[in-house]
Write a structure and sequence with these properties.
Layout lengths: L3 E6 L5 E2 L14 E5 L43 E3 L1 H7 L3 E6 L10 H13 L4 E5 L3 H13 L3 E6 L4 H9 L3 E5 L3 H14 L2 E3 L5 H4 L5 H9 L7 E5 L4 H15 L9 E7 L4 H8 L25 H10 L4 E4 L1 H15 L5 H15 L8 E6 L24 H8 L2 H4 L2
Parallel strand pairs: 5-13, 6-7, 6-9, 7-8, 10-11, 10-13, 11-12
Antiparallel strand pairs: 1-2, 1-3, 4-5
The structure holds pyridoxal-5'-phosphate and zinc ion.
The site of pyridoxal-5'-phosphate (PLP) has 19 residues, from helix 3 and helix 8.
Length: 413
Amino acid sequence: MDSVQALRCKECGKTYPLKKIYMCEKCYAPLEVIYDYESIHLKRSNFRNRPKTMWRYRELLPVSSRSKIVDLHTGYTPLQKANRLGKILGLKNLYIKNDTVNPTYSFKDRPVSVAVTKAIEFNAEAIGCASTGNLAASSAAHAAKAGIPCYVFIPNDTEHNKIVQIASYGAKILVVNGTYDEANRLAMQVAEEYNWVFANFNVRPYYVEGSKTLAFEVCEQLDWNPPDHVIVPTGSGALLCAISKGFNEFEKLSLIEHANVKISCAQPYGCSPIVNAFKKGANVVEPLEYPETIAKSLAIGDPGDGDYAIKKVRDSDGYAESATDEEIIEAIKLLAKTEGVFAEPAGGVTVAVLKKLIERGCISTDERVVCYITGNGLKTTEVIANQLPNPTEIHPNLDSFKTVLNRKEVISW
Ligand SMILES: Cc1ncc(COP(=O)(O)O)c(C=O)c1O
Ligand SMILES: [Zn+2]
């Protein structure tokens, strides 16, 4: 589209045409999409009759032709006011951005819808990705919709239900005996040799743009008043940086008055290289070789956008905090029981970190806070199944029901 200008190096500023490249030839830093904001004339009222998907923000998404968009109806997910959870945590204005209800049940449908659209534009023979599971499921589904093959590289501890989901869409699954970072390195070598589009490498600058819509939607759903504070579950840091860019773009286009949103980073304790660097006051993330956490979707020891994520958090006056496995499980249960939203551990990390930040006095009662809940609990039932009470068996008669109803464990439900 006309508003999409070029790719630009995040470090030296060198610009490149909109091709299948992701790294600066001069300094090897990542590239990002730049827009001609002067040419974008968007008013709030323009959105009234647009589709209720992420593609309602098409001027700010880097695709050339609307007719080629590969979309499974992603986005415009509910932003629900979380009064019951807020009351327990001590917040009057807490919101849950429920991205568990996307077509493949995670936020990854947002970046992948853009990446697979670019793959079609670039005439790719196949789609590929290295993934902790959710990106693979989303890539597989979008490749199926586009009618092209898909190859995913996942670590060997990826959750069972995610593997079943990926296989159902017909993707070829390469289970790498190693960590996500090792799967990632292998997939990068494959990307060098084949004419495939790898969602998170050779079209990465385009791919990350899709996640900006998580900021756009929140602004629109809050009647164009951006929240005071957002909590973002973080692995590579790409999602956090995209959310920050999204708020800034809406400010540039005068769709919101200001983009003063505190952005806080939430990681699992067993894989928190960004949090550790932030707490030490460092600007550069030190990679972690062997992550150990139940939040496998966030188990990225060498976060590609980690240094940029630290800067976004600092510049916005946000915080970075981690949560242990026990805290993650408690938070998954708390969110489900108070708000009816069943999240995978990444969502537990977000809620557990929110709780800690409130306890530390970093968030005040009146702040308008949005928690991004980015993946569905049905993908990771093994982490929670044995943490819940067993169902009660009864005979098919009323007496049997009355007998069990008097039992302590049933009454205490
Ligand atoms: C459910 C979920 N939430 C959050 C993230 C973090 O995204 P990023 O790696 O861009 O920081 C991931 C990454 O895989 C994820 O699967
Ligand atoms: Zn450069």
